[in-house]
Design goal:
CATH superfamily: NAD(P)-binding Rossmann-like Domain
Order of helices and strands: EHEHEHEHEHEHHHE
Number of helices: 8
CATH architecture: 3-Layer(aba) Sandwich
Number of strands: 7
Shape: globular
Strand content: 5-15%
Distance between the termini: 46 Å
Radius of gyration: 17 Å
Number of domains: 1
Largest sheet: 7 strands, parallel
Structural class: alpha/beta
Helix content: 40-55%
Length: about 250
């Protein structure tokens, strides 16, 4: 656990081994946060942990499969044991499959909902327990998608992100009813150059084609939005940030 003299804020980030999550971790480390980061890929997680520690902060790295609630609970229990507090949770982990509603594989649908909706909700619940126990303040940030605001053709993925949109507002209302100072924000990017397209299409060439049509967002753009949202004065709650590449139509 940190000594009082350090007195640094603590942030937890899911899906931190690459792309947007990795960049958010770097930005929060540069802002003076101690970090608890998790992902499924142990080697990548260890690499970023080593990189972040060069900024003279404490970093907890833990391999977590977000489809397994017991692993999520263990992650937050470790945060509690190490710091006894949590100031920011960034629910960054998310995935999508090319699994149409007419012909898609049930396992692909289930994984989409388990990671994008249920794991996000479990992480949020556990983070708020920690925040309530250490002053009832903090910030929950959901990394959502423009697919939470329109349906571009991927029905189940869009459904999961529409759920995140509802969960953001539902959480805000519950926190207000509880007269809590905890804030919640959602950040909804359009096309961002990450590994998402390659995994979605199961094709590196198709992913390159997706990102070559026009200049797309970079992970740093999303990290900037996270820092903006959490750095506002306590009386300001940034509810939803929509980010598109300038040339993206929808």
């Amino acid at each position: 656990m940190n000594t009082p003299s350090q007195n640094r804020p603590v942030a937890a980030i899911t899906g931190a081994s690459s792309g947007i999550g990795r960049e958010i971790a770097r930005r929060l480390a540069a802002s003076g946060y101690d970090l608890a980061i998790c992902a499924r890929r142990q080697e990548r997680l260890a690499d970023i942990g080593d990189d972040l520690r060069r900024q003279d902060i404490e970093v907890l790295t833990q391999t977590v499969d977000l489809r397994q609630e017991a692993q999520i609970l263990d992650f937050f229990a470790t945060i509690r044991e190490r710091w006894g507090q949590l100031d920011v949770l960034v629910n960054n982990a998310g995935l999508g499959h090319n699994a149409p509603l007419l012909t898609g594989d049930t396992a692909a649908w289930r994984e989409t909902l388990e990671v994008n909706v249920l794991a996000l909700s479990i992480c949020t619940r556990e983070a708020i327990k920690l925040m309530q126990a250490s002053g009832d303040s903090g910030h929950i940030v959901h990394i959502s998608s423009m697919s939470a605001h329109r349906v571009p053709g991927s029905g189940m993925y869009s459904a999961s992100k529409f759920a995140v949109r509802a969960l953001t507002e539902g959480l805000r209302q519950e926190l207000r009813s509880a007269d809590s100072s905890i804030r919640v924000s959602s950040i909804s990017p359009g096309y961002v150059e990450t590994e998402f397209a390659e995994k979605y299409h199961q094709s590196a060439d198709q992913a390159k084609a997706v990102y070559a049509r026009f200049p797309v967002l970079q992970p740093a753009d999303i990290a900037n939005a996270v820092v903006y949202a959490i750095s506002q004065p306590d009386y300001v709650q940034v509810h939803d940030i929509l980010l598109r590449p300038t040339q993206q139509v929808s």
